[in-house]
Amino acid sequence: MTSVLEQKLLVIAGKGGVGKTTIAGAVGLLAANRGLRTLVVDVSQQDRLPALFGVAKQHAGVETELREGLWSLSIDPDRALLEWLQALGGRLSGRLLASSSTFQYFAAAAPGAKELVSMVKIWELTQGKRRRGRALGYDLVVLDAPATGHALGLLQSPRTFGAIARVGPIATQTRRVEELLRDPARSSYLAVAQGTEMAVTETLELDAGLRRELDRRVHAVIVNAVLPQRFTGAELRRLAQLGGDERAHPGRPLGAKRPAVDTVTRSAMLAARAVHDRARYQHNQVARLRRRRFEVFSVPFQFAAELDLPALARIAAHLARRL
Questions:
Q1: For the chain, what are the domain ranges?
Q2: pLDDT per residue over 22-57, tens digit each?
Q3: Which CATH class is domain 4-229+293-320?
Q4: Residues 43 and 146: beta-carbon distance below 8 Å
Q5: How many other CB atoms sit within 10 Å of the CB of residue 267?
């Protein structure tokens, strides 16, 4: 399988709350470790990566160097729209444009306008020669996309506007962006899920949406925070016996005295059983993805109070064996 790190744009999408930013940061770190000039972009204006790397966050729209070879950027859709319209309008003052009723009307009335200009900005970042100034482009742009429905709206915005604007600079830009999104030699799509029914269902919806809108497929699914299956059936029965579970003693005479079990032992048994059941449920959901012929990569659960840079590095090292 061709490495997704060899392309210009890598879109990471999935259900909200499954760890897309974590995976995007880990993929960015992996790419930088391989010598690629890499940028992780988000369009939610959250830009959580600088704090993780211990770097002061810049203003929205400003690229932040996280470490050698790795940057992050949070795109402000309003600012991107203003810059885009200003570029189309030539020397028109940005302040004048922003205060004009025409701009306010366009921003409110044109569905998908902010999504389109965000994608135009992302396209520009993938180019070796940038439009503004002498800034260098990037070997790889990792897009930390919004939740599935919004991500599909973002990705289909060039097609939507392309159907309206058939000539002129807007048509040229939308065509370039759509060509990038459709080209398997330059772009790939990774889905991030967790081992839950809803997250897996949204992954299936993402893949269906990509096929419908761009004639593309999810390259692979990364299932995040997967718990290990620690116990065999015999070990589970032994744990139940230690915890005083009657179901573990089918041959005990009716009314026979149960052995005394201290509270700590029973609590430990119940906790172990709960974790085992949770892990089994997760693995059943992973099997559901595999039955759909997806390439599935599992990322182990990080047993830590909060995600830190060493944990991100461990995830990157784990993904290095698959990407």
A1: 4-229+293-320
A2: 999 999 999 999 999 999 999 987 788 999 999 988
A3: alpha beta
A4: yes
A5: 11
